[in-house]
Design goal:
Elements lengths: L1 H26 L16 H11 L6 H15 L5 H20 L4 H27 L5 H13 L1 H18 L1
Helix pairs in contact: 1-2, 1-3, 1-7, 2-4, 2-7, 3-4, 4-5
């Protein structure tokens, strides 16, 4: 019985990282929303945002960096491209955590959209510096819009995960 409880605790404590891996794999599914582009969406940033605010011990900076490196390897981008953005999101939220933790959901949603917009702009410029190709602003805007629109769904699911983690601690 004791081993079963330990296994259950280990599962729920690793669930945010495993969900991050699932979201990375899910983001690799090509979706054609604009002609000539296979759109992918970094939905894992919603998970990073939520757990950076409400339970940073479960999804710490090392695991966030590891998710970024895995995402880089899956997307064939230079190592550190997404890792830099994910860690940037984690640290910017860590600095604002005392303000964000007391916000209502709509304020959190607005803050997520602002922080993700800044990160998306940085990714666009980094991609340009690395490849020399400026990708259409429509591509970045659609990516930004979809991740922001799906934020409530992923935030709700992250809240469920966090609740289960609180139960086993």
């Amino acid at each position: 019985m004791k081993n079963l409880l330990a296994l259950k605790k280990m599962f729920w404590m690793s669930a945010p990282f495993l969900m991050g891996l699932f979201l990375i794999l899910f983001s690799l599914v090509p979706i054609n929303l604009l002609p000539y582009y296979h759109q992918s969406f970094p939905f894992v940033v919603t998970l990073i945002f939520y757990f950076s605010i409400f339970n940073p011990k479960v999804l710490n900076v090392f695991l966030v960096f590891l998710l970024g490196i895995i995402n880089d390897m899956m997307t064939s981008l230079p190592l550190g491209f997404y890792a830099f953005g994910f860690v940037l999101i984690f640290f910017s939220i860590s600095m604002l955590r005392s303000y964000l933790i007391d916000m209502v959901f709509t304020q959190l949603w607005i803050m997520f959209c602002l922080i993700f917009f800044c990160t998306d702009v940085i990714w666009a410029f980094l991609f340009f510096l690395i490849s020399g190709i400026w990708v259409s602003t429509g591509f970045w805007f659609v990516q930004y819009l979809f991740v922001c629109l799906f934020f409530p769904f992923f935030c709700r699911f992250s809240g469920y995960l966090n609740h289960k983690i609180q139960e086993v601690q």
